[in-house]
Amino acid sequence: MSDILLIDHRGGRLQVTINRPERRNALSLELLDRLGEAFTRCAADPTLKCAVLTATGDRCFAAGGDLKELDAVRSEADTLAMSRRARAALDAVRRFPVPVIAALNGHALGGGAELAMACDLRVATPQAELGFLQAQLNVTTAWGGGIDVLALLGPSRGLALLLEARRIPAAEALQLGLLQRVCGPHEALADCTDRLLAPLLQRPVQVLRAYKALALEARLALHERLAAVEEQGFTGTWIHADHWSAAEQALAPRPPDERRGTGPREA
Description:
The chain is 48% helix and 15% strand. The protein is of the alpha/beta class. It has one domain (5-201): 2-enoyl-CoA Hydratase, Chain A, domain 1. The strands form two sheets. A six-stranded mixed beta sheet has the order 1-2-3-5-7-10, with helices on both faces.
């Protein structure tokens, strides 16, 4: 069995790759734990200047939480524990002491969109889509992603995006400021990522870390104010009957011509 998380460290750059292409890189709790542990462990390395988070395959960066696994989470206490467990993993990404770039090789949906937003900067292939689809399942964001969207877009535009619960094409996400770059028509994602990183890597490590610390303090101030509100909203919507009705429909088998990637692994 291949490892679900690949880690490479060279030349001051940490590369973390989600490796579940057969499951559209769905974010299982084990994977989230491994992700948090990797970023927590590597945060102590003083030689690092940046980190890149990406995934294998060309279909999905991360297709959300694994609904088949999360179907067993029913009580308020279990829901709260699950939310905090996953949020801890994303917080390890947010708190990483150097800039973290999400290189979106494919769609980032539901919890996958939250993971992308936990990073500092984002690049994507032209085919990639970013989608906070939680409201399609009658739930809200659980892992800090809603807070990150509101911080980036402001209350009105952020609220509209979260309520629309639609897939945002890469070109539109770039215009909104959700992405920093989109690959050119014949440009590899690795090359696009390197172009974004080039000016960063020219800076001394102490400059990178000082600016990241400043940005992180601004981000954490908002998370500290809003985390409990987001957590309460998620817990209440997750245990509601409306969510379980929507989840049951999402988990139901569908004919191939009705599948557009909004299947059961994209919570």
